[in-house]
Every structure is written in C-alpha cells, then in structure tokens.
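Hi V.,

Quick status before I head out on leave. The structure for the redesign project is tokenized and pasted below; the design run finished overnight.
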C-alpha cells in the first residue's frame, strides 16, 4: 500500500470590514476566526498535514515600518496562538504548520513557523533564514532577525516535513539541506504580490522539488491589503510532486483550502531515476561557502 499524506494549504484574505489603522487585537482575532473555519473545512476534507500562510493572523504589515506591529509578537510555544493551535490540532488529529510573529525576548523578533503534531504536541519551529528589505513594501529587516536554528525536519505519522518561509524560496542551499535531512514534503508559507515574483512563483519551487526529489506545498495569501495597496497577493497556492508537476492549485483571488493526496512512494521512484543525491560532489563545493561577498 502506498504511503500517502493528504496535504492541505490555506490561502486567505483580510476580512473587508477590518480597519487596518485601528487597534491590533480586532485585526488579529478576525484572522484567527477566519482561519478556524478554514481549518475545520480542511479537517472535513480529511487533511493530515495542514500549512497556514505566512504571518497568518495579521496583514502583511511589512508593507510599512511601524513599531505598532511589534504588538503582534508572541512566544513559541507558550503564546496564546500556539496553544490554541495545539488544541485545534488535537481536536482534528491533524498536524499543522502555524506561521507566527515570534518574540524570543523583548526587542528580538523572528518570522517563525511552529509545527504541531496531530496529538496536539509541539514538535518545534523553523525561523525564516533569509530576510528581504527592499522597496516597495518589503521592509522585513525592520521586523525580523534572520533565523538561527538551521533547517529542522519534523516527523509526523504520515511523513517527514520541512519548512521554508517566503523569501527563503529564492535560495537553493536550504532547500537542499532539507532534502538531505530527510524532508519528504517542504511547505513554504508566503506573502508575495504580483510583479517579478509572480513569474518565479511556479518556476523556483517546482525546481526545488525536482532538484531534491520531494513534494512542495507553496502558499500565498490573496487580495489587496489596504491602506498600503503595494500590490495584489495573487494566491495560486499549490502542491507539486518530485517531478515538478503541479498536482493541485488554488485560485488567484479567493479564500481556499487546497488539498492533495501526496504519494510519498513517488519520492523513491523519482530518485531511482534521477540520482542527484548519489552524484552530488560535496567535497567539490567548498568554494560555495568560502566565496564571501
């Protein structure tokens, strides 16, 4: 019998009646409430492992530089959102990847994803490694320190899961490390708008899947977030297989739970044909880390 993981991705917009210039807590609660309904839908669809979008309980606030958004930070795993999702995961017997704005200590913040098992136990976290800072509207170094916990892989009853976050996807090195450490499905929760990145959206991550012989679940939020209107979050969340083929895809402009059955036995089938791991030459790659800018 094939080893199958039913994967799920949630793409969602900010509710239209939310005042982004108002207090933080109503914004956060509105997004949590919306996601709880979508998580319930994912459970009804039989999802085993679910991933939410980057910074899921708020807007993509990096469109501006304003210290008010520091109020969205939480501890992991002791913060309220992680604890809530631990209860939700246990209720639905579902593993969940939960992107959170993490506070390590006062003034030290990370763009992080907590990973929770189907028994409600906290499995660990991944901190976004690569932090962009560019115009227009991606002022992430104002909010986040670069990750410092490497590239962990998490065991679930259905398979081994790795996490990359948004801008990380432009860097092949971490994607390879996740494969070498045994990841079978790599989730990339993102917040990215139309423009240069849309051309790359269905190019880079299927390429990671092919180069490393694993499945990728790529998530992007939807809609235009006012008052910034830095661009349209174009959705199109998808799963692709180790051959780089898209096997499920969400719409451009609608909230959606994207679901796919991932046949993990396909990983061995592909790697037996494309022997990239056998033919690697790590001893010949020293220049990769020696050539500094």
């Amino acid at each position: 019998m094939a080893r199958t993981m039913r994967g799920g991705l949630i793409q969602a917009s900010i509710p239209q009646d939310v005042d982004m210039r108002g207090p933080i807590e109503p914004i956060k609660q509105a997004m949590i409430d919306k996601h709880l309904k979508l998580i319930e839908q994912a459970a009804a669809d039989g999802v085993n492992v679910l991933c939410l979008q980057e910074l899921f309980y708020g807007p993509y606030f990096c469109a501006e530089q304003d210290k008010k958004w520091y109020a969205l930070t939480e501890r992991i795993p002791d913060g309220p959102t992680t604890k809530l999702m631990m209860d939700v995961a246990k209720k639905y017997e579902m593993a969940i990847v939960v992107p959170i704005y993490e506070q390590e200590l006062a003034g030290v913040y990370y763009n992080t994803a907590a990973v929770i098992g189907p028994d409600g136990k906290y499995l660990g976290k991944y901190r976004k490694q690569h932090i962009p800072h560019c115009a227009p509207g991606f002022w992430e170094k104002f909010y986040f320190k670069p990750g410092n916990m490497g590239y962990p892989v998490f065991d679930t009853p259905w398979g081994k899961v790795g996490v990359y976050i948004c801008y990380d996807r432009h860097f092949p090195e971490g994607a390879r490390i996740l494969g070498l450490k045994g990841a079978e499905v790599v989730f990339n929760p993102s917040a990215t708008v139309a423009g240069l990145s849309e051309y790359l959206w269905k190019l880079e991550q299927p390429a990671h899947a092919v180069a490393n012989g694993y499945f990728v679940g790529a998530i992007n939020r939807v809609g235009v977030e006012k008052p910034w209107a830095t661009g349209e979050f174009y959705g199109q969340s998808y799963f692709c297989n180790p051959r780089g083929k898209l096997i499920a895809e969400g719409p451009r402009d609608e909230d959606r739970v994207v679901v796919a059955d991932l046949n993990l036995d396909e990983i061995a089938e592909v790697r037996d044909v494309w022997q990239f791991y056998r033919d690697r030459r790590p001893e010949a790659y020293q220049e990769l880390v020696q050539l500094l800018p």
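Above is the designed sequence. Residues 4-290 form a domain with the Nitrilase/N-carbamoyl-D-aminoacid amidohydrolase fold (CATH 3.60.110.10).

G. will cover questions while I'm gone.

Best,
W.
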